[in-house]
Write a structure and sequence with these properties.
CATH class: Alpha Beta
Largest sheet: 5 strands, mixed
Shape: globular
Number of helices: 4
CATH topology: Aminopeptidase
Strand order of the largest sheet: 1-2-3-4-5
Structural class: alpha+beta
């Protein structure tokens, strides 16, 4: 089941965020649970970034009888006007599905919920999720391609400290 983040989910979402961080290219970077908890609070309070409806979090709950209700994925979405005009673009701050649930329906359902949010309350014209973690890059690229997404530029990373 896919639904919006609720207060009862914060601890589990922090755990998902920690797992995503540990698995990613950013594993060597500081991980701040307090900062992540503050972001969850902003989302829960509905305080928009780039209003209206600028920030949302969707979670995937397991429907397996042994793990019913356990969170197995999350999609933290953002939407704001393009820098050069008022058309809005929606993307992700974080998109993560636990390794054991990859290849199942959770990722697809999270993206479909993101798309519905972007079309509806976020009023986005463009959808631009990304792959910046270097986790399953080819598989993720193929997944988004099957959903109708096309490559849109590239991102570059250079460590300077």
């Amino acid at each position: 089941m896919i639904r919006r983040l609720e207060e009862r989910d914060v601890e589990a979402v922090l755990e998902l965020g920690s797992a995503m961080h540990a698995e990613s290219v950013y594993a060597g970077c500081e991980f701040d649970l307090v900062k992540l908890a503050q972001l969850a609070d902003v989302i829960l309070r509905g305080a928009p970034i780039g209003a209206p409806e600028g920030l949302a979090c969707f979670v995937a709950e397991s429907d397996h009888p042994d793990h019913h209700g356990q969170l197995v994925g999350m999609f933290v979405a953002t939407c704001q006007p393009m820098w050069f005009g008022n058309d809005r673009i929606a993307g992700d701050l974080a998109f993560y599905v636990t390794p054991a649930r990859r290849g199942g329906a959770a990722a697809l359902l999270l993206v479909k919920q993101f798309e519905a949010w972007a079309r509806g309350p976020a009023e986005a014209r463009w959808l631009a999720p990304g792959i910046s973690t270097r986790v399953d890059v080819e598989r993720t690229r193929e997944f988004f391609h099957r959903l109708g997404y096309r490559p849109w530029g590239e991102r570059f990373l250079k460590e300077i400290l």
